[in-house]
Fold this protein.
Amino acid sequence: MKNTMWKWLCALGAWGLSGTPAMAHDPIFGIGPHVLYKGGVETALALDADKAGDEKQQAAVLELTYGLSGDWAAGVDLPYVVKDQGANTNRGAGDLGLFTKYRFWRADSLGLQQSAAVHLKLLTDTASDRGVPSLDKGTTDAVLGLSYGYEGRKWYRWVSARYRANGKNKAGFQRGDKILLDLVGGIRPRQTKYLEADTVWLLELNGEYARQARQGGVRLSNSGGTEWFVSPGIFWTKRNFAIKAGVQIPVFHDLNGTQAESDYRAHATFEWHL
């Protein structure tokens, strides 16, 4: 009898956890294994602002995601970019992105869900059709990632790694490939019920290593290197609506040659689940 009651309690706990806003959480700058339910639709508006030396860039990105199954989601990014380079400002539609995520492992227990997923994103060369040279990288790039998430009623942990493979443009220029690593912790200070607004505070450690760019097969000395960021943020949800926002603060630079170091990066997303 005791074993039967315990099984029911675990099942109810897992069901309650999966139905709360907490299960919609993913990191702000890293990636996480959360996916939509089958047939679910997520619309989001993401806002980005970056600064490195004299160069500033802002972007507004419309994100659309669809749940193909309970473990598989796919979607599209539609960006609009404003880039300031000293006295010059260029703006226009950026490269369309296509992405998918497959959660290949999930383990539920009382008040806890652990899961892992593989990620793939293609960054197309569609900006080249719009006549804004500074927004046209001239290549189609691919990002492959792996993420693990530990999501409890109070504590959160995520670990992720990504590899970005950049293509070569028609002029023979190839930006260096990148490795991105993310360690993330989160805490819910106050446990809430399903209909109540819910807040989780996040702290991320984000690392980027870029290989040197090449022109005609020759390495360019003023390219590539390593940067690390500490990134505080917040994730606020109320039923099927969520806001997450954070800022990346650079704490370590090891860039090759003469390059502008990152001053800051900021990100905010407004999500609506249908």
Q: What stands out?
A: The chain is about 5% helix and 60% strand. The mean pLDDT is 89.
